[in-house]
Amino acid sequence: MAFLLPSFFSELPTLTPAAAVDIVIVAFLIYQLLLLIQGRRAVHAVIGLAILGLIYFAAIWARLTLLHTILATLVPYTAIALIVMFQTELRRMLVRLGRKPFLGISQLERREITQEILLAVAHLAQRKVGALMVVERKIGLRTFAESGVNLDAVVSRDLLCSIFEPGGALHDGAVIIQGDRIVAAACFLPLTTNPLLVTEMGTRHRAALGISEESDCLAVVVSEETGRISVAAFGEIELDVPLERVEHLLAEGVQPRDARTTPSMTRGSSAVHESTFDRP
């Protein structure tokens, strides 16, 4: 057996860069297809096709002529059968490939996510429902997400409003958003250590400042008492901001103070000593 291995490997085709790219692309497509059919009835159909494939090769190996002939007759129609059975899954895969580029989320999807967050913030502010949403940027927030309840759900206005519904199990704490997903809810965040904010701001605002001091995230706060909206980033906070300002910060992002030359943000509190993110 050992002397057969060198001859076996010598017969293998040379792995060229084009062949490597080919393998990666096929593996990626198979992976996307498996993600789409995971947990769906299509999984059982795939298992059935795999069983038929095993039977087909077993018929060839055992020289079962009749069974091999029947299965070989069905093979040309397999592609059509797959398209008919998995038309929904294939359509979803193509949509997913079109909506999600290889690097991050698309601009169209980013705008849709921003609109969903804005709709939720506007609804919560109108009803004076307290809320704290943290949008992850380059620095990961996995440590803080693990302190809450794992959701891994698509960002939507209805889900965000349901999470912060008064009296709900997930009302207290923060929601962490990563890309187009709500990673976790009811998360515990570090409070700012600034002693001037202990009496001037509530727990949500202090938590928003605290998490912005430890990462480059963007934290959106809705006051439970006044319904006013605040945004925290880079250890500083803007109080009582309009929805247009929130939309700009969510869509365009924020920059630290040393990366800008425009005037600082309007200070809503004497406890905010510096503004470290840009204003349009």
Describe this structure in words.
By secondary structure, the protein is an alpha+beta fold. The chain folds into two domains: about 90 residues, no CATH class; about 150 residues, DNA integrity scanning protein, DisA, N-terminal domain (YojJ-like (1, 3-Layer(aba) Sandwich), CATH 3.40.1700.10. Helix content is about 50%, strand content about 15%. The protein contains twelve helices and seven strands. A seven-stranded mixed β-sheet has the order 2-4-3-1-5-6-7, sandwiched between helices. Helix 3 crosses helix 4 and helix 7 runs antiparallel to helix 12. The relative contact order is 0.08. The N terminus and C terminus are likely disordered.
Quick gist of this model?
By secondary structure, this protein is an alpha+beta fold. It contains twelve helices and seven strands. The chain is 50% helix and 13% strand.
